[in-house]
Amino acid sequence: MTNRMAFTVRSFLLRLALALAIVFFFALLSRAGGPKYIAGTSYFESTASGQPLVWPLGQITYYTDQGDLSPILPNASANSLVADAFSQWTSVPTAALTATSGGQLAMDRAGSDGRHPVTLSLSQLAGLVEVSACVAPSNSPCQNFYANPVPLSQLQLQLVAGAGQISEAQGFQPVVVRVTDSASPPDPVLGAAVVFQTTVLRPQGTSSTGGSGETNPTNPAMPVILSVSQTTVTADINGLASITPSSAGFSGPLEVDVAVTAGTSAALDYPLELLPAPIGGDASGSKLRPIGRPAAAIPRPPEPP
Hints:
CATH topology of the domain at 152-297: Immunoglobulin-like
CATH superfamily of the domain at 152-297: Immunoglobulins
CATH architecture of the domain at 152-297: Sandwich
Number of helices: 2
Largest sheet: 5 strands, mixed
Shape: elongated
Distance between the termini: 118 Å
Number of strands: 12
């Protein structure tokens, strides 16, 4: 009897020891503690790498991108979308958190093509300004570029394309000019205001074939101004500005004169000709008589401020 009790006690102790050993073993494998997420090396400040991601007292401050979210979702709409999403989350009764917008990120992200436009805003531009564009978050690599003011009196205009066109009722190709400074060799000027004044005239000694708003179909002794319009175009990064001349709905024969000005004195003038539509596909008899009017006779448009 004594041997049997001793065996029972020994068997119980062995089972207990085995159970404790199993619990201890699995406790080593399933240690708890430590943060669930930590900051990585991408999209975080370098000093935050490896640190726990926490929001003290459940207070979240979020920042949005400076640019548009997509071509159909501009920045303002994207900000509203994010604010509405946070509102949905924080309104859950069991969610012990608040979300507040901290404004825009100090950096901006490029689009799918790797490009990102940005507007350079300066309170005044009196001399050479150096601008540095860097890749976040480590600010490397960087590319420097310079903004240099050009006085209006030093702006020049160069012909690029579209001069001397003669069209047979098919319309005109664009008139393209380049704005430069007075350096040698000249540099293109970005952002310059270029004024295109288009004057549509009926040449002297010609009769019209009809057209929008024309009331004198006889043969005039002097050119007749039918329409005058003015368009201001901002030169692009290559200094280019252009318009596509229009006959304003009038039919040939016409002269369409394009006067181009920039700055205080730069000016170009492009007389274009619009012939009558050919009859039966034969344009051999369509001729435009010379216009006895100098280009300078067209009033110069007001200078941009």
